[in-house]
Design brief:
By secondary structure, this protein is mainly α. Helix content is 78%, strand content 0%.
Length: 121
């Protein structure tokens, strides 16, 4: 995902929406993969049912916290590392979704700044 440089024109609205869609699809893929990893971890390491595994994984990825009590040491270790991982995924996905918007704002600011400077010269 290459962004336009400072001296390049602002991306058209259609191309910007396409960029947002690409970032959104990548974010969905990251969340889906992370959710699957959590479901399988809770299911096969802790022995929770499929629905409880899904619930715990989704709650951790959403920043809420686990709902089921963990009984095995391996399950507690998995949940600890998955919680840390989920926090990083949350921040990464937020950055991925906001990056095109922030870039567009800053790029527009630079274009306006450059045109003001060239008008003064």
């Amino acid at each position: 995902m290459i962004y336009e440089r400072r001296n390049e024109p602002l991306l058209s609205s259609a191309k910007f929406l396409e960029r947002m869609l690409q970032h959104g699809l990548l974010a969905i893929a990251i969340v889906a993969g992370s959710l699957l990893m959590g479901v399988f971890g809770y299911r096969f390491i802790e022995g929770l049912s499929w629905i409880d595994s899904l619930l715990n994984s989704a709650m951790l990825l959403g920043g809420m916290g686990p709902t089921s009590e963990l009984h095995s040491t391996a399950g507690k270790l998995f949940a600890s590392f998955y919680a840390l991982y989920a926090g990083l995924v949350f921040l990464t996905v937020a950055g991925l979704l906001f990056a095109p918007v922030f870039h567009r704002i800053i790029h527009r600011f630079h274009l306006e700044s450059d045109s003001d400077n060239s008008a003064k010269s």
